[in-house]
């Protein structure tokens, strides 16, 4: 058996020597010689390739690495040159943005290099954030290796986007307690505002902490800042204003104003019906106790009389009198007769 192996080795070497002359060239490596499907004998006849790498035999040197020239025996100075490794640059990526896991590249003087990758994923401090640590290792046939890492940080520094802004609102106030409840409903509902975030759930808050004193006697303005925040602490805010106005009840025209106190101001504010008669009305204004009497006040006596024809009033009922009033319902003793 030993004789057979020796004879086979001699025959194989004799077969290869001519081919070396054919393939010998200035370049040490000829990729066209590499043939993963080629069969090489299982004999140990070490050769030192022109790339300074030791191979178990010349066949393996040629078909696995494309080595074109070698010398018998192992290399006297072993390959101690590690592969060259090119690792992708570190990345800082905003949550929600697209990115790619780029591949590393490697090369070696032997013409052959094995490249491996191990990726570690580390959750970030809040939802949607992550750290990826990619470790690449390039190893040549002589066992020399080079290691490099790439770090990809996925962060969230973008605040939510307000899609529906908080809305201003005006409410009429006739009952202070009801107005206060409406004010809290408006603030607790964040004035109808809506927001969205690319990576996190949105949480709303406001700075409504100073409760005004509501009497329904004056207009009150309440300005509130509404804040939309995501899970990473990014915040956007927008203001809205609530206006609380005294609620006025509007009376109908021709309303009898008897008993209504318009104040002690010495100013005629219009002509209105008092106990069924058109009379001059004095006071400080047409609004009293949340009621607006403007519709029941007229600019002239004629406007009052013609606007409220169903009213009965007294006057001179004698046709021969100078001030005869055919619309008077009863004689009031005011007739003036010619001399």
- By CATH reckoning, the class of the largest domain would read Mainly Beta
Radius of gyration: 51 Å
Q: Separation of termini?
A: 171 Å
Q: Encode the helix/strand succession as letters.
A: HEEHEEEEEEEEEHEEEEEEEEEHEE
- Binned strand content: 25-35%
Instruction: Decide which structural class fits the backbone.
Output: alpha+beta
Per the CATH scheme, the topology name of the largest domain is: Immunoglobulin-like
- How would the global form be characterised? rod-shaped
Q: Number of helical runs?
A: 4
Main pleated-sheet profile: 4 strands, mixed
Percent of residues in helices comes to 10-25%
Strand order of the largest sheet: 5-9-8-7
Number of domains: 4
CATH architecture of the largest domain: Sandwich
Mean pLDDT: 85
| Uncertain ranges | 1-25
Count the strands?
Answer: 22
Fold and architecture overview:
Mean pLDDT is 85; it is low at 1-25. With 339 residues, this protein is α+β, with helices and mostly antiparallel strands. The chain has a four-stranded mixed sheet with strand order 5-9-8-7, with no helix packed on it. Strands 11-15-14-13 form a four-stranded mixed sheet, with helices on one face. The protein folds into four domains: 2-72, no CATH class; 84-155, Sandwich (Immunoglobulin-like); 161-246, Immunoglobulin-like (Sandwich), CATH 2.60.40; 256-308, no CATH class. Helices cover 15% and strands 32% of the residues. It is built from four helices and 22 strands. The protein is rod-shaped, with a radius of gyration of 51 Å. It has helices spanning 2-23, 58-65, 176-188, 301-307; strands at 47-49, 54-55, 70-72, 84-86, 91-94, 105-107, 114-123, 130-139, 145-155, 161-164, 169-173, 194-196, 203-206, 220-229, 235-246, 249-250, 268-274, 277-282, 287-288, 291-292, 314-315, 330-331.
């Amino acid at each position: 058996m030993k004789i057979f192996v020796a004879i086979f080795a001699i025959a194989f070497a004799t077969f290869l020597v001519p081919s070396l002359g054919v393939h010998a060239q200035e370049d040490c490596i000829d990729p066209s010689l590499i043939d993963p499907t080629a069969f090489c004998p299982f004999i140990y006849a070490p050769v030192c390739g022109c790339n300074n790498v030791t191979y178990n035999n010349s066949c393996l040197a040629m078909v696995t690495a494309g080595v074109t020239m070698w010398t018998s025996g192992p290399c006297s100075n072993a390959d101690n040159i590690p592969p060259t490794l090119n690792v992708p640059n570190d990345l800082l990526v905003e949550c929600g943005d697209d990115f790619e896991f780029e591949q590393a590249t490697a090369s070696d003087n032997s013409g052959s290099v094995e490249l491996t990758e191990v990726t570690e994923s580390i959750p970030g401090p809040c939802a949607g954030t992550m750290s990826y640590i990619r470790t690449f290792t390039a190893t040549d046939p002589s066992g020399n290796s080079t290691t490099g890492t790439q770090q990809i940080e996925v962060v969230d520094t973008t605040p939510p986007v307000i899609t529906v802004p908080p809305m201003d609102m005006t409410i009429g106030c006739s009952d202070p307690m009801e107005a206060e409840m409406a004010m809290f409903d408006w603030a607790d509902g964040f004035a109808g505002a809506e927001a969205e975030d690319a990576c996190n759930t949105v949480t709303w808050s406001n700075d409504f902490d100073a409760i005004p004193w509501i009497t329904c006697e004056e207009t009150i303005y309440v300005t509130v800042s509404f804040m939309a925040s995501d899970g990473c602490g990014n915040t956007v805010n927008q203001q809205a204003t609530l206006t609380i106005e005294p609620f006025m009840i509007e009376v109908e025209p021709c309303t009898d104003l008897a008993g209504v106190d318009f104040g002690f101001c010495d100013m005629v504010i219009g002509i209105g019906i008092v106990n069924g008669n058109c009379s001059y009305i004095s006071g400080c204004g047409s609004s009293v106790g949340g009621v607006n009497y403007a519709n029941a006040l007229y600019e002239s006596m004629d406007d009052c009389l013609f606007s409220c024809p169903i009213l009965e009033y007294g006057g001179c009922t004698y046709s021969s009198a100078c001030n005869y009033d055919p619309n008077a319902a009863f004689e009031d003793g005011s007739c003036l007769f010619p001399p």
